[in-house]
Amino acid sequence: DAGITQSPRYKITETGRQVTLMCHQTWSHSYMFWYRQDLGHGLRLIYYSAAADITDKGEVPDGYVVSRSKTENFPLTLESATRSQTSVYFCASSVLRQGRTGELFFGEGSRLTVL
Amino acid sequence: SQQGEEDPQALSIQEGENATMNCSYKTSINNLQWYRQNSGRGLVHLILIRSNEREKHSGRLRVTLDTSKKSSSLLITASRAADTASYFCATDAGWGSYKLIFGSGTRLLVRP
User: Fold this and answer.
1) Are the CB atoms for A115 and A26 separated by under 8 Å?
2) Distance of residue A25 Cα from the nearest chain B Cα, in angstroms
3) pLDDT tens digits for chain A (115 residues)?
4) Are B1 and B102 in contact (CB under 8 A)?
5) How far apart are CA A74 and CA A99, in angstroms?
6) Whether B43 and A48 lie within 8 Å, measured CB to CB
7) Dmax of chain A from CA atoms?
8) Residue B41: which residues within 8 A CB-CB, separation 6 or more?
9) Most buried residue, A32, A95, B27, B39, by CB count within 10 Å?
10) Which of A38, A43, A46, A68 would you mutate first to test chain B, the one with the most B CBs within 10 A?
């Protein structure tokens, strides 16, 4: 089905382990984003990407790594998970319209618990 | 940070009433967007208003933008129980910027 999909939807891991959250979109949108959502903080931007091999830091990038070898995929890796990274992670994609940010299309989220 | 801030944080109204949510931001923008999030789901785009627009309508939604005050409001008219959700505003960082920064949201409860 067309759209943006995240996997896994739920993940429990332990402190210090590496975790990768996957994001795949079928629209060939150039722009992709990773946000985390925590109570009291709304959504905070972790990393974003304008195209394959072009990524940039957002508001809260520490402890995360991203890559974008293909337009449709934008995985987010927690190299050594910490309890403070327990959160719901949302991937989104978008196109620019005349140099302006267009609407974002969100996945359903990945709920990560770090014990 | 140019994060938008929504006000109020929570709003409880009766079905049929209007709901108004406000958003303030800090820096110049190209456009401002509003999103809705049902519990446990991803965000869904509602409406986008450009910096040169003052008001925009979509169905029961009315959005205003005052760039001089760096503020926006979302009005939902004749609310329904199904409108119960969290609502977020999001702003960009001006021309050519493609990152979108979200506020902390308003939780709306519409009582039947």
Assistant:
1) no
2) 14
3) 569 999 999 999 999 999 999 999 999 899 999 999 998 778 999 999 988 999 999 989 999 999 999 999 999 999 999 999 999 999 999 987 666 778 999 999 999 999 9
4) no
5) 22
6) no
7) 45
8) A108, A109
9) A32
10) A43
